[in-house]
Amino acid sequence: MSTDDAEKTFTGFFGNLQQAHARIEERLQELEGAADAVTEPARAPKALETMASVLEFFSTFGAQHTEDEEKTLFPRLQPLPDFKLMLAAFDFQHRMVETEQRALAARVQGFTPAGAAGLREQAHRFVEVHRAHILAEERGLFPLAEKHLPRRVLVAMTLELRVLNA
Ligand SMILES: [Fe+2]
Ligand SMILES: [Fe+2]
Q1: CB 158 within 8 A of CB 10
Q2: Nearest ligand, CA 24
Q3: Global pTM?
Q4: How much distance in Å is there from the Cα of 120 to the middle of ligand 1?
Q5: What spacing in Å lies between the alpha carbon of 69 and ligand 1's midpoint?
Q6: Which domains does the chain have, with CATH numbers?
Q7: DSSP structure class, residue 40
């Protein structure tokens, strides 16, 4: 697709990222439901199945979303002094979400009924950390970035998103 075509169909780089956040939020809600069910023996098998499916989503779609942000948006903000500290914080949040995700996957994989309460706590922690990160992007980073980046850069980043997700 040429830059002209991208311009015509441009719906907003940050709109695309927010749509991804909405999909992520749906799966976080699913995970919360499973977390509360996993401590009940009768509901545990189904809850573990749901958690495995949610983890699969985060290791594919979720990982792609993080890569989208780190390959398109972050490099554009890196040279701008206003974003120096903020980017370090957001990069740290990405790594923190990944750490919590790995801890959750390990607990699901090594599940025993005695570990159900710990798994529930871990699932809730992952949801909390991920949700806080999304909120910080949507309320803090994205609006500020949108103000600082020229439209041609937003169009270029939209094109790059398409290539990354093709
Ligand atoms: Fe992010
Ligand atoms: Fe994001």
Answers
A1: yes
A2: 2
A3: 0.91
A4: 24
A5: 6
A6: 3-164 (1.20.120.520)
A7: S
